[in-house]
Amino acid sequence: MTTQTPLSPSPESSARYPVHRGKLIGLVTATGLLAVVCIASLAVGTENVSLGTVWSAVTDYRDVGDEWIVHELRIPRTVLGLLVGLALGLSGTLIQAVGRNPLADAEILGINSGASLFVVSAIALLGLTGIWTYIWFAFAGALFAMAVVYLVGMSGRAAVTPVRVLLAGVAVGAVLEGIGFAIRLRHPRAFDNMRFWEAGALDGRPLDVALAIGPFIAVGAVLCLVVSRSLNITSFGDDLAKSLGGNVVRTQLLSLVAVTLLAGAATAGAGPIGFIGLMVPHAVRRFTGPDWRWILGYAVVVSPALLLAADIVGRVVIRPSELPAGIVTAFIGAPVLVWLIRRRGTDRT
């Protein structure tokens, strides 16, 4: 009779270790890249600021010259970008995991459009101007749009497919955006100070905006952590997940709450910004594999870096004017969506 030494690693664990070490190294590298992008976000813009001035503005702020630009304008902008990017990346990853739809994203499925419509309605019809008040309408709008999209996608006799849900989201999102645009035309003065918000931008927001949406994004991120372990099981389908001991209803319910908080808070803070949640899971899957826990971990770091990079590009591409970050991400994300649809069509042939 042979016994195995408890301290000796099994072949399975020794095979896994290098894989996890590689993923961890990649995550640390992505975190370093995020730090570089954050520094660039503080230094680069229509008026570039030296790194010494950036350091002085952060550590020993004096209300003079370029330090004022960094402290009063770019620090709130960067903090908002970090929060909104994190929220968009996590919400998109969660939608793809729970819905088993690799083409999903909060913007593509019309969730951001629903949140935007409810915020626009609150501002124009109820006179609400502070984010502490209309953020609740963003949550309600995100939940409303999500429900309508899936009701439309599941209606009829045809089988529910990811592409069908995608088309339903595009259609519902277009309708909601049209209604919101009509409301803005009827009440133009209410939106004189929110024109960049409509296009999805990070500038012109005080630090209070980030403070308002931060707690909700934190709760959504914690919920993502709670459901992360069960996402790999639920991705096999409801029946198989139940046979493996997965609580499908609990995972779907918590994910619904998390997506509502994340997408609603991101839209309330920066307006409708799309394609971040679509691109990031596909980009990081090359390093993480199909494990949703690692994909969520990478999304926490890569998504803010991508959004801040898009914001930096928007600052310099048409100097001295600026291009909203939402437009930059649309220029990048739309071709990615077309490529993903074509690839899925090719894989099925």
UniProtKB/TrEMBL annotation:
It is found in: Cell membrane. One of its GO terms (biological process) is siderophore-iron import into cell. GO terms for molecular function: transmembrane transporter activity. Pfam families: FecCD (PF01032). The chain crosses the membrane at residues 24-44, 78-97, 109-128, 134-153, 165-185, 209-232, 253-280, 292-310, 322-341. Gene3D superfamilies: ABC transporter involved in vitamin B12 uptake, BtuC. The keyword Cell membrane applies. Belongs to the binding-protein-dependent transport system permease family. FecCD subfamily. This is ABC transporter permease [Actinoplanes friuliensis DSM 7358].
